[in-house]
Amino acid sequence: MLDLLDLGLHEGAHLLIERALSREPTIVVGGTSSTLAVDLPPWARARGHRIERADAMTFILHRSTTTRWHGAERAGNPAEPQNHAPLRWGLAARGALVEAGAPAFDLPLADKREVWADEAAKLYAQAAATQWDPATAIPWDAPIEHPPEVEDAIVQLMTYLIENETAALLVPTRFLGRLHPHFREVMQLLAIQAADEARHIEVFTRRARLRRDLLGLSTAGGQASLATLFDEPDFAIASFLLSVLGEGSFLSLLWFIRDHAPDACTRQVAKLAAQDEARHVAFGLAHLARHTGEDPTLRERLAAAIERRHAALAHTAGLNAEVFDALILLAAGGWEPADLRRGHAAVVALGRAMDDGRRQRLARLGFDAERSAQLSALHTRNFM
Amino acid sequence: MSKDLVLGAVAYDAKVVPIWEGFRAWFTARGLPFDFVLYSNYERQVEAHLRGDVDVAWNSPLAWIHTERAAKAAGRKAEAIAMRDTDRDLTSVVLVRADGPIRQVTDLRGKRIGVGAKDSPQATLIPLRVLADANVTGSIVYHDVLVGKHGDHVGGERDAVKALLAGTVDAACIIDGNHVAFVREGLLSSNAVRVVQQTPPYDHCNFTILDGGPPSIGQFRELLLGMSYDDAVVRPLLDMEGLKKWLPGRTTGYALLERAV
After folding, report:
1. Contact state of B229 with A68 under an 8 Å Cβ cutoff
2. Which domain holds residue A339?
3. According to a count of CB atoms within 10 Å of the terminal CB, is the N or C end of chain A lower?
4. A45 close contact with B: CB closer than 8 A
């Protein structure tokens, strides 16, 4: 007999009863709680357990023959995702036992082939471990002694970076809301990427406003380029254009700013942002390399996307002249003709470095050298 | 449309709509053309049933008694064809404050007795009958939440308990299961009240039919009794309606209420 002593149903006694019923189909329950005879029968009825009264304070309980877990299924294996995640698993943790009848969520990115990278967990862990605090990681009080026009150039570059990082935040986030959480590591990685971009937007904004009240220029051509990313409905193509080509090119740009900026604050902002962007590029490359390995037709769809985007942007101005000139002035550091010549050469070299990087990454996805060169040349002149 | 089996139910809560929409889809998918009509109170539902507006009524115990009496007076016969497993052998209790002077039920003579809505079998009619049987009468303080819905709404019982805790009544009458429910929702603290009276068991709702109904009532009852909690489609409906399975109707559990009204 299960003796509840003076513990009442209103004090948690049901846990002892359920435990006993999980072991035996029929149990005898007794106790001295003054409300046992009031509380036990309705509790048993509500759970479908049949109850008989043996005497004033003793009851016989027969375990319910029904359970809400009939037809329940495991949402895969907690250690690794399976190839397809059914929508009926919804938001359940991977490996959880899911009750039948749960609503199907609208999570169309539910195939491992489309979204997965074996490196996702490692990249997420790296990202989590290397999050930096904008308040302390940047020398905001470092001296600024360069000419006012160079400061204007920095403000223009920051304005441009903010716009592009906003695209880098919003584009993956739109897919994040459609990604089946069965692919937990990818979900976490996209989430922390969004946090990275939020931080970049913060530090670029703060740097722009260190010495100026107003920000720089935003061109129609630049936004047209970003609109082609923003409107891309296919996850693989959006990742390819954004992470592999766009953020890949931005790595070179951020390294350029790190190497040429005249003040420590700008250099550090660019350095830390580049560290994060390198992870974003690594994930894009990893999951697309895996995807193209499983679906060789994807490669030509990606190539077609570059060509399509190039055609769509053919009528636009590309990189705004102010950004180009700001990069020259940043690298020149002043107005002497020799400085400007050096700055111009550095920006031309930046273009080559971006092209080299894109071609290497295209090669990682299986494009041959000639095709890689051809496709890299078609990448948006806006860099992102 | 006229071939549908039409059920009447009282809309005591917004969830009544999804419950019966869900059951309608389930019955229809199994070849029983089915529809439902919602009423705002049981009196109107009973009248409609007697007029033949509905074929079967999901009745409170008081509505069952009203239907049965009216049918009898008209030379007709009412039948309870099914009920929830949770409709059988309920009790009500009379609570007093654990820190108060009331030690036993007879101490309540002449006191203020808090009950639920005027027409609640479980929180008013049955416990007052049982108290009267024990020669306990006092001033009755009703907590009328949604009169006409026969106490289906828990608000009247909750208000009675609040009044007990506030000291404006000396006792509160509620259905047995609400003791633990009110502790769980934080209304009652553990051991704040004492039970001075528990009523004998009684039964609650049933599906009522009248003689001369359509033959599809048999199919309705058969499908109802065949519903399984293992079925993921009906499980949420059964959860909302508060049962694990439907049982055949019985009328032996209404004697206490018969004496109360």
Report:
1. yes
2. 112-378
3. N
4. yes
